Amino acid sequence: MKEILGKKTLKGVTHLLLVGGFSDCQFIKDAVNTEFPEKRIIIPEEASLSVLRGAVLFGHKPEYIQSRIMRCSYGVKTNVPWDDRKYDKKHYVVMEEEERCDNIFSLIVGKDDSVEAGMLVKKSFFTPFKHQDKMDIMVYVSEETTPGYIDDDTCSLLCTPTITFSDTCEDQRWVDVEFVLGNTEIDLKAHDRMSGEAISAKFNLI
Fold it and tell me: Could you tell me the pTM of the whole model?
């Protein structure tokens, strides 16, 4: 709790609400009061049932939760034009005779960010190779606030929605991706500009 309350986004917290089974434990009550003497500690009646009641209320009216603080950072694997001054050489690649930096963590939302329910984030990606017949949208999660690469120790692959193309071409092909945030899941919609084909996916927050 001390580590969590030490975050800059929680500096203004003056009250602590204890709920759940352990809130009835006198040892826990005393420990919290001792550790946070400057906070007002509130323990509602039937605190052990508060979590259950909250889950039922949320099931009936999800709009009760208006915003969330993100526990992790979420991003998509992408590549960008190469720059010797900015990128690690181990990520250097050549794609269609163009020097690029691969394995970039393209941030969707950062750890500790406050996100309102229904918040929309839009990104666009293109196919790096000619005659590409699909695009994998590789979504990663990280414990870092601003991860640089998807192969960092703190990053792990969350899911890989794939959009397939019914025809191929030599030109770059753009796919517009929308992420809907602020709920218990992140909704993803991807749209191929050329064909109009689209996919959708959902993945749970970690």
Answer: 0.80
